[in-house]
Amino acid sequence: MALYQQLPFFNPSVPFTRLIQGGLQEGTSITVCGRVLSDADSSLYCRFQVDLKYGSDIALHFNPRYEGGSEYVMHNTLQRGRWGSEERKYETPFPRGQMFALQILVTLSSYQISTNGKPFSEYKHRMPFSWVDRIHVSGNMEVKLVAFQYLVSHQRQGSFTVPYKSIIHGGLQLGKVIIIQGFINPQANRVVISLRHKAGIAFVYNAGFDENLVLCNTYGDGKWGEEEQSEVMPFKKGQPLQIIVSRQRQTIENSETVVT
User: I need a surface site. Which of 4, 69, 214, 239 has the fewest CB within 10 A?
Assistant: First the structure.
């Protein structure tokens, strides 16, 4: 299986369409992080969609809807100009006005879809996933991140012993991206990433499995700063992970994906 490393997209405008480098393969994972706009009401346009496309065909149409007081997610395929039979799930993990993380994992038989680190649905392939060459995101939402992960079977080249330390040559300049890929030990208590300098810690990301909580902070002048917490746990023990860290506009922004 070939490895294609496609850089993530941060804060793209909506609608968003991009080619998927190398196309979809078994083990490809796509993560979309965003927020449903809080002014969504019961009108026809209160919905958003993530489409995996080939030409005018849509292999996977993932479509959360907010209509007439009913919230549900519709899955479907568009082929040769005709929609197939709908598959609906009458619940939604996308509360209006709140952030979410959507992960789509490609397997030989289906798309396995997770939200906020938890399995949500499975959609069997109706057309070959290898045909898919684009992703399209649109609707009543804002997008913070679109990222791709490509798992390589039985490849251990470039692995490192944990805990791992390394110098970032030239520093973490604007636009530079750090991508960390690996597998979480089934007995792990936490995943910790820290960006350090001579006088302290610019950024620490601490995902604790026992607490099911993610903590972010900064350490300088002998004291910790104000802690930021997130109850969205994007990782699972014994599962692959990808962490992407990028500095933008004089701040360090972090986003993460996990294959479930």
Answer: 69
CATH class of 9-150: mainly beta
**Residue 35 has what pLDDT?**
86
Q: What is the CATH number of domain 177-258?
A: 2.60.120.200
What is the mean pLDDT of the segment spanning 174-181? Answer: 68
Q: What are the distances in angstroms from CA 205 to CA 9, 86, 219?
A: 20, 40, 12
Are 143 and 131 contacting, i.e. CB atoms less than 8 angstroms apart? no
pLDDT in tens, 89-122: 998 888 888 888 898 999 999 999 988 777 899 9
- The domain locations on the chain are 9-150, 177-258
Q: pTM for the full model?
A: 0.67
Longest Cα–Cα distance of the chain, Å, equals 64
Quote helix, strand, coil % in the chain, to nearest 5.
0, 55, 45
